[in-house]
Amino acid sequence: MLIVISPAKRLDWDARDVAMTEPEFLEDANRLARTMRNLTLGDLRGLMDLSDDLARLNRDRFRAFAEAPEADMLRPAALCFAGDTYQGLQAGSFTKAQMGQAQERLRILSGLYGVLRPLDGIQPYRLEMGSRLHTRRGQSLYDYWRDQPAKALKRQAGAIGTQTLVNCASQEYFGAVDEKRLGLDVLTPVFLEDDGKTAKTISFFAKRARGTMARWLITSGVTEPEGITGFDLDGYRHDAERSAPGKPAFTRPRQAGA
């Protein structure tokens, strides 16, 4: 199975002694970075609803963005994103063999880079996929990327001999994937917190669970779609009654304070 996750807004920029690979859509990323470099602080604040400090940080990042960066300007994608999903993924604890599996089977959807492998070297940035950034290709990043993510994922799925994509990304990011062009069977796990009366998705927990699911798929050796129902970490269990076609549900007792 091929797996996709979202990036994170928060970064961990500690140096890593890891050999990095080059992103597939680097030229497209450089074009976007040039567009971003021309935006004012006010533009950045409005584009991503940022505070003054975050707008200034990201203006400075794009001003420093290099089209041919030195290695010390880069970090491997799966190791430098530091949000909730990545707390579940724990890519820093992968063995060499597990990282090899992740490099083959895990993809990160990115507003700036399109589609990333875990070891693809990236520069620091923030550019959310839902941003209404005007470019020559259209009025949003969905217009900019068009069908490129879908075509790339379909090709990469074919390279590992699978017809199944497990979508552990957010709606915002998976919205950049044209499912008709993708042509794969998509499984989107749903994570629910049950208080004994109702079961609902709580964003904070669901984000982390999606990362944990991605890690489990990589480390458990599960390769067939029906195997996903065996996921049983962090208190979650497969819930056949709440599942729907293409959307396997996993439920656990509501956490204290949730």
Automatic annotation (TrEMBL):
Cellular component, GO annotation: cytosol
InterPro entries: YaaA
Organism per entry: Pseudooceanicola nanhaiensis
Signal peptide (UniProt feature, chain positions): none
Protein family (similarity comment): Belongs to the UPF0246 family.
A Pfam family this chain is assigned to: H2O2_YaaD
Protein name: UPF0246 protein GCM10011534_34810
GO biological process, one term: response to hydroperoxide
Taxonomic path: Bacteria, Pseudomonadati, Pseudomonadota, Alphaproteobacteria, Rhodobacterales
